[in-house]
Amino acid sequence: MIKHLQLKNLKAWRDSGSVRLAPVTMLLGSNSSGKSTLLQSLLLLKQTAAAPDRTLHLNLGGDEANDLVSLGDFDAVLAHGAAPRQFEIVLEFERPEGERVRHGRFACSYGQTASGAVVVLALSLSTVARQFRAVRRERGAYAVWVDDEPRPRGKGPQLAPERSMAFSAEAIALLGPDGAHLQDLSLALRRELEAIVYLGPLRQRPARDQVWSKGMSGAVGAEGQQAINALLSDALQPGAGQGAVLRSVSAALQRMGLADRIEVRQLGRSSRYELLVHKDGVDANLRDVGVGVAQVLPVLTVAYCVPPGSTVLLEEPEIHLHPLAQAVLAELFAEVSQQRQVQFLVETHSEHLFRRMQTLLARRQTTTAHCQMLFVERQGANAVLVPLEVDEFGTVRNWPPRFFGDALGEAREQARARAQRMREAAGG
User: Fold this and answer.
1) Which helix (H) or strand (E) is 230 found in, with range?
2) Cβ atoms of 197 and 306 closer than 8 Å
3) Does residue 100 contact residue 11 with C-beta atoms inside 8 Å?
4) Per-residue confidence at 409, pLDDT binned at 50, 70, 90?
5) N- to C-terminal Cα distance for the chain?
6) Could you tell me which residue ranges the DUF3696 domain spans (predicted)?
7) pLDDT at residue 219 above 90?
8) More confident residue, 125 or 396
9) What is the mean pLDDT of the chain?
10) CA distance 163 to 358
């Protein structure tokens, strides 16, 4: 699980400070406030770790088929007026390894070469007891440092970091017995990034039917394009737990009032299948029901099919849902994170989702340690993060004014207008 995140000079963030990320973290704020950049920074690292070119320092995107995010070039990412011209990403994580939990910290600052490429200026990988650093020197050479030793273990261009998070084979060999410890730490970080799953705000419209690829992958895709295949795999692949995801998604849809259940049905004797939605005694193809069902289906599918230990990044999971369904989403995030050990980082504009999370706190169905609510606002050109102070009764002590509108003010204005019209009617 990712425990803390910090951004410096990255887009609108001069310095986010160390942001605590809970098992369920909700990001709220106005449009273009900087919320998405917090999630994008993790996606940058994830797609860099997956890059086929191990000498790449940071993959800012551009490959629409494979990249999760595309942020342009160095100048587009660097905060306006940043001096010196460099930005930094820091994250802390915990990852179970057998009987113990590995605590790791990654910190990397990036600059620009004369040719315009993004380059690592300084990389630090550390645990509670050990620290390994690679620092860029002149002409592309790097010095490798261990702990607080007064001198570097070695210098040279062959010691350049790989994919932002790994030391080169030459650096590992140089460190001798310490190299194995560093390799374990790099591997734990890589697995943490590989465990990130992203579902964006724009989900593809589902096909009326499709061929089951017979794969076991539970990936739904950044636009939810593989959600139906993930459900087909769950329902049709023999083995322990067959159909468990489909049943869980059905139960969630029922709680939301969107469907009684869903069902996978083969079309004749062909290899094509459709997803049926049962509601009030009527069964219909997923394509023929309200768009809200199709839009939330990837959200529910990813929640129940990702492996334990995953971190799920969700943007606007509530789109096209009625208020009750949005509120139930909050319950599902709290429950699934506890039951399946899945972390949810949710960017949302939903008042109903947020209010239900407050209610869960008041009911003691979750805790402030398990659920973190963050508000992002702009102060001039800079993004500022405000952790909302929520007590055990769900009351927010430092709620930013008028973000969800002014419900009491609207009610007062309606009463004033009603009284005015009544006076006018009586006078006439």
Assistant:
1) helix 227-236
2) yes
3) no
4) low
5) 68
6) 371-414
7) no
8) 125
9) 91
10) 40
What does the buried/exposed string (b/e) look like for 50-86 if buried means 16 or more CB atoms within 10 Å of the residue's CB? ebeeeebbbbbbeeeeebbbbbeebeebbbeeeeeeb
CATH of domain 197-366: 3.40.50.300
Say yes or no to pLDDT of 142 above 60: yes
Identity of the residue numbered 221: G
| CA-wise closest residue to 197 among 217, 216, 212, 213 | 217
| 316, 348 Cβ separation under 8 angstroms | yes
What residue has token string 């650096």?
171
With pLDDT > 90 as the criterion, what percentage of the chain qualifies? 76
- Per-residue pLDDT of 161-215, as tens digits, reads 999 989 999 999 999 999 999 999 999 999 999 999 999 998 999 999 999 877 6
- Report how far residue 258's alpha carbon sits from residue 242's, in angstroms, rounded to the nearest whole number: 24
Domain boundaries, the chain: 2-195, 197-366
pLDDT for 257 equals: 94
315 touches 298 (CB < 8 A): no
CA distance 370 to 354: 14
Residue 181: Cβ within 10 Å count: 16
Structure tokens at 260: 């009684």
User: What DSSP character marks residue 114?
Assistant: T
Cα–Cα distance between 128 and 126 in angstroms, integer?
A: 7
Amino acid at 234: D
Instruction: Kindly state the average pLDDT of the residues 231-254.
Output: 93
How many CB atoms within 10 Å of residue 329? 28
Tokens for 280? 């009030």
Over residues 63-81, the pLDDT tens digits come to 888 899 999 999 999 999 9
Q: Which residues contact 332 (CB under 8 A, 6 or more apart)?
A: 252, 255, 300, 303
Phi (first) and psi of residue 261, to 5 degrees? -170, 165
Q: Is the pLDDT of residue 400 over 90?
A: no
156 CB burial (10 A radius; 0-12, 13-18, 19+) = middle
Q: Evaluate if pTM is beyond 0.85.
A: yes
CA distance 51 to 94: 23
Task: List all residues 6 or more positions away from 407 whose beta carbon is below 8 Å from its beta carbon.
Answer: none
- The string of DSSP codes covering 261-289 is EEEEEE-TTSSEEEEEEEETTEEEEGGGS
Give the Cα separation of 249 and 231 in Å (integer): 9
